[in-house]
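Lab meeting notes turned into a lecture example. A postdoc, R.K., suggested we walk through two folding results consecutively so the class can see how the record format repeats. The first protein's sequence and structure tokens come next.
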Amino acid sequence: MTEVRLEIGYDEYEDGMRMEQLIEQLAAKPESREIVELTIGSWGQAYEEGPDTFVDTLIGHKDAFPALRKLFIGDMDSEECEISWIMQTNLAPILEAFPQLTSFWIKGSTDLSLKPLKHERLEELVIICGGLSKAVLADIRDAELPELRKLELYLGVEDYGFDGSLEDIKPFMEPGRFPKLTYLGLKDSEIQDEIAIEIANSPILDQLHTLDLSLGTLSDKGAEALLSSERVRKLSFLDLNYHYMSDEMIKRWQTSGMSVDVSDQQQSDDDDDWRYPAVTE
């Protein structure tokens, strides 16, 4: 048993089952010491209750999971809870309790905090949400993550939690902040063009294998800046999947000689030119 998923359905929750009970039961099994990957899905009423109680329980039983390397908190679909409704909490204590973690995934950003964000071995941090607050962006900006290789942030939209601006995102384009970073995802954004233009000639591209600007409102404006950049051309992979680029721009990418994903073309609202990221509510 190296991978385990814990979740609570509606009926189970109504019958009194709680996530902390599932964690306690799991921790009591001898096989818990072999678990490498733990995924926590719906905990019953994620739109009303955050994970505070079961996070404390998990931390309290940390010695039962010595092999744990990957943890995902909040992996649930829209039928269980809309992504923008998922309640979170300060999850930084989990990283302190599990110093051997190499991968931490989070879904949902309401009331999310990561303070202080310090970890000696974490290689991958992924936050999936409909809108990431500038407070959380600041927590990550100020993090001490010397081994971080992959940072993937769903930035989202103002209506669902994104209250920042390009200025809050610029720090992630600075080289040296995470010296081992090779995958940077600044995605699912309503200001994807601004991000693309700003990062197109950033020195951080020199250390990246992959730049992920997918799932947002990228148009020809941002794409032109990327396509004109020699630094972008040196990337091993550029992910622009789900975008608002024109047919002509797509053809230019396809003949660029680059490894780039330009699939899932979207059409803006003809009347107002409204464009929407892929993941919001």
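The second example is placed directly after the first for contrast:
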Amino acid sequence: MKKYKIAVIQLNLNDVAKNNLEKCLHWVKKAAEKGAEVISLPELYSSHYFCQSEDVDNFALAEPLYSTSFKAFSALAKELGVVIIVPFFEKRMAGIYHNSAYIIDTDGTEAGLYRKMHIPDDPHFYEKFYFTPGDLGFINSPTKKGNIGTLICWDQWYPEAARLTALKGSEVLFYPTAIGWHPQEKEQYGVNQYNAWMNVMKGHAVANGIYVAAANRIGLEKYLPDTAGIEFWGASFIAGPQGEILAQASHDKEEILIAEVDLDLQENVRQNWPFFRDRRIDAFGDITKRAID
């Protein structure tokens, strides 16, 4: 296919798993009705963002592979004939959990499974307590609509992740995301934080001649007493292969963004800006070192 339509869904997900599942199924249907053929939900769609604290009770939110989320969205993908990216909290076994995403093809089968590779540990983003780093590497998922690359949130800051996924043949990089402001810091740092987030992913689009789609959540999630919570900043977007913004969401509304992937345009951009051709792979060996001392 030379062209296909992609969508990211921006939602408030500060609810229980059953309600979030029903909500996301409804919004995926709405996106398909608008013509979307590949649809991504935000990170950890089924619950509030529980990583604001280190609490073993939150492991009860995880689900085994191919259980509730897979069954529901597999059936929906097959019914609608669309590809769905479903980010979820994976229970691999007792004591091993991942921040993962299914890539479900139009016939309801699994086109790919991605496990988040980069795991943050920041104030109220205590993900290292919950998630084992991914061990499946950076993947391209061939689907009946196109070649889909999926990375998750903190991965979005790493050019190496975008590059390796693009080199495997992905036409689009999807970034299911849960990122927001600490309310007490928003006035001083908020603009720069948000702009950095946008700019780094637009840079990945340019450097790789690739489409980039980020699906964030919205809303103030303040489930812990005596804390300010996290104000998720929304602003989901889709960018083209020169970093141009094709669709942009608000900071505070539930929305569906849709844009067209044009593979002829992508090829033209890569022919005129041949960054892949000119890479000095003979000189990049030190990139695998922690530091060059």
